[in-house]
């Protein structure tokens, strides 16, 4: 089931208090909920519920990790 979320709506998916952990990259929203490295919605100072398009380009893995993640929708 694909969903469309605004940046404001995406903020509620922060991985805290039982919420799912979603991030947007280049307009696509990915589910990080079951990724151990994103426990509690945080990973190397980054927080779920945000558009991390610019941040991922600075990561050592770049966008190579995205193909392993479930896509949940689009950022609108």
UniProtKB/TrEMBL annotation:
Domain Cytochrome b5 heme-binding: 5-76
Pfam families in alphabetical order: Cyt-b5
Membrane-spanning segments: none
Top-level taxon of origin: Bacteria
SMART domains attached to this UniProt entry: Cyt-b5
Name of the protein this chain belongs to: Cytochrome B5
Species name: Secundilactobacillus silagei JCM 19001
């Amino acid at each position: 089931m694909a969903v469309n979320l605004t940046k404001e709506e995406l903020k509620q998916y922060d991985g805290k208090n039982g919420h799912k952990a979603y991030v947007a990259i280049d307009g696509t929203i990915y589910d990080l909920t079951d990724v151990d490295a994103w426990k509690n919605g945080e990973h190397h100072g980054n927080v779920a519920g945000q558009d991390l398009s610019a941040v991922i380009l600075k990561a050592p893995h770049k966008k190579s990790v995205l193909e392993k993640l479930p896509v949940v929708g689009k950022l609108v």
